[in-house]
Amino acid sequence: MPVLLTEGASFIYLPVSKRIEGLVMNILISGASVAGPVLAYWLRRYGFSPVVVERAPLLRAGTGGHAVDLFEPAVRIAEYMGIHSEVEAMHTRTSALTLERPGRGPVHVDFSRFATHDSGDDHIEIIRGELARILHEATRDDVEYLFGDTITGISEDSGGVDVTFARNKPRRFDLVVGADGLHSGVRGLVFGPESGYRNFLGGYLSAFTVPGHGMPEGRMSVYHAVDKLVATYPVWQTGEARAVFLFRRREELAYDHRDTARQVELLREVFAGEGSQVPRLLAEAAGADDFYLDSISQILMDTWSKGRVTLVGDAGYSPGPAVGGGTTVAMVGAYLLAANLAKARGDHTVAFARYEKDMSDYVATTRTVGPKVMKTIVPRSRFEAALTATVLRWLPRVPKPLLRMALNSPNRPSRSLAGIRISPPEPVPG
């Protein structure tokens, strides 16, 4: 089955059933979450030999991590990979919301009424760990994975890249790709310190698993106060629930990214005194084995390729977790990078330039979405909190044409990504 992707007004036809004759390139990918496995899948199909190295000792698979959104381009890519039905089957099933705020009664909204009035784009919400599991299963039989290891050194010459690891023996590769997230080790080794590229958007995200306590399937519970938001939603696969904390902060917090105990303490300090379910959730945080806390930040780079090394996903152009459609952008970036390497028959100087050109407009657009979403996702005042509750209360009465206009807002990640045209497969021209 060929892959067709648009490049301006022209088309690139790449038959995945026919590997590029005589092409054997060893490509090291750092990161086994989303972008890494997607890239490995397509590279392998095109005849390359990818190796994926991952810091975690085991795959971060299953129901761990917070929910992520796959917008239309990512859904198309999942179809081409033959995993769409499994991804869709694992969607979160969230269709209703209960909003609480201090001193006020709850507001209940059933979103299933509005599902057909979204932007028209396909959309799947899935737990990140489930997506990682599906992607790993699609690649594990013909892609080499090195779990529990990290890259410690990258040395490039005219013929390749010598890589040293924390645990494994040094190896030589033709190319290296950093798909290792916001705090990319590859980016640090090749492009310099993170501080030169990270743009703090004024907020933090925390997520972890908690007991479900009989939460009704499909209903998300949200508590919000000024500069704070807490959401819980059931994980139907296990009967547990996921807790998500968002909060604003003018200045960045000082803590070690590996010091989970300190991160839990910071979260408790920020949300001390809040009501509803918050005290119970905070009590569960210390015992959660998947506790996560990080800044909501972007990665801003003028170029994310240097020599035989390039970056994909959050490592090179993170739009900001929870605010910018980063999972979709990562999948598209991996897809386009692999396709351009195949089209250029492994010539990285040509492929990397085309890859950056293909992604530049989309990356620029998603950079504008994160700051806009940060202004609205967490209320900045009591007035904004009250306004959100009022809008939700009146939402079922909004005329459908007006609702459709609101859902088509260019500020929504789904609309900002609508310009990424991943075309369906076409026959290879003779």
CATH superfamily: FAD/NAD(P)-binding domain
Radius of gyration: 22 Å
Instruction: Profile the largest sheet.
Output: 7 strands, mixed
- State the end-to-end distance: 15 Å
Broad structural category? alpha/beta
| Order of strands in the sheet with most strands | 7-6-15-16-17-14-18
Topology (elements, then pairings):
Blueprint lengths: L1 E6 L2 E6 L10 E5 L4 H11 L3 E6 L12 E4 L1 H9 L3 H6 L6 E5 L6 E4 L13 E4 H12 L4 E4 L3 E7 L2 E6 L5 E3 L1 E4 L6 H7 L6 E13 L8 E7 L2 E8 L4 E9 L11 H12 L6 H8 L6 E8 L5 E2 L2 E3 L2 H4 L8 H18 L4 H30 L4 H13 L5 H8 L5 H4 L14
Parallel strand pairs: 3-4, 3-13, 4-9, 6-15, 13-20
Antiparallel strand pairs: 1-2, 5-8, 6-7, 10-11, 11-12, 14-17, 14-18, 15-16, 16-17, 19-20
What's the gist of this structure?
This protein has helices spanning 35-45, 72-80, 84-89, 128-139, 185-191, 260-271, 278-285, 314-317, 326-343, 348-377, 382-394, 400-407, 413-416; strands spanning 2-7, 10-15, 26-30, 49-54, 67-70, 96-100, 107-110, 124-127, 144-147, 151-157, 160-165, 171-173, 175-178, 198-210, 219-225, 228-235, 240-248, 292-299, 305-306, 309-311. The protein has 430 residues and is an alpha/beta fold.
Task: Summarize the structure in words.
The chain is of the alpha/beta class and 430 residues long. It has a single domain (26-418), classed as 3-Layer(bba) Sandwich (FAD/NAD(P)-binding domain). The protein is 33% helix and 27% strand. It has 13 helices and 20 strands. The protein has helices at 35-45, 72-80, 84-89, 128-139, 185-191, 260-271, 278-285, 314-317, 326-343, 348-377, 382-394, 400-407, 413-416, and strands spanning 2-7, 10-15, 26-30, 49-54, 67-70, 96-100, 107-110, 124-127, 144-147, 151-157, 160-165, 171-173, 175-178, 198-210, 219-225, 228-235, 240-248, 292-299, 305-306, 309-311. The strands form five sheets. The chain has a seven-stranded mixed sheet, with helices on both faces. A six-stranded mixed sheet has the order 9-4-3-13-20-19, sandwiched between helices. Strands 10-11-12 form a three-stranded antiparallel sheet. The radius of gyration is 22 Å and the shape is globular. It starts with a strand and ends in a 14-residue tail after the last helix. Mean pLDDT is 85; it is low at 1-18, 116-120 and 424-430. Pfam families: FAD_binding_3. InterPro entries: FAD-bd, FAD/NAD-bd_sf, FAD_aromatic-hydroxylase. This is 2-polyprenyl-6-methoxyphenol hydroxylase. GO terms for molecular function: FAD binding.
